Amino acid sequence: MLIPDSKIQEVRERVDMVALVQRHGVELKKSGRSYKGLCPFHGEKSPSFYVWADEKRFKCFGCSAGGDAISFVQRLLGKTFVDTVHDLAKELGIDIEAAVDPAARERSQVKEATDYAARFFQDQLWEPTVGRHAREYLRSRGLLERAGRRAARARAAGLR
Ligand SMILES: [Zn+2]
Q1: Which fold is adopted by the domain 5-99?
Q2: Can you tell me the mean pLDDT for 120-128?
Q3: Distance of CA 14 from the midpoint of ligand 1 (Å)
C-alpha cells in the first residue's frame, strides 16, 4: 500500500529521535549539540554513534551508518520501509489509513454495495413467490441450475 508523502514527512518531523534510539537499546549521553553512544550497527568500545535531536538524524563515524528515524529502525530491525513507517506512525498516533488514497476507499465501498446487491437479488430469486417469474425465465434459458449451484457455493462460503 502506498503511503502518502505527507504522512512520511509527518512521521519524520514528529518522532523523538533520541527517545527512539534509546528505546531500541542504545544508551545515549549528551555531548554538546548532539547525543552519542555505542553504535548498534557495528561492534565498538568507544562511542562514535551520534544523534542530533533537532535534525532528527543519526550518524556513526565508525561504520558510516546514518540517516533518519525510519532508516534507523529499518536497518536495526531489518524491516521494510512501509512496515517501519506504519509502526512509527502508530506509535506517534498518526492515522495513515485515513489518508490513504480516497479512490481506493471509494472502490472498496462500491464493491461492498454491489456485493450486497448481488446477495439481495440472489435471495429474491429463491424467494417462493417473488422469485417465481425470474426462476421460470432462468429455467427456460437453461440457467437456473447454474444459478442454484452458485447460490449454494455462496452459502457454503458463508457469504450470505
Ligand atoms: Zn557504526
Answers
A1: DNA Primase; Chain A (3.90.580)
A2: 83
A3: 25
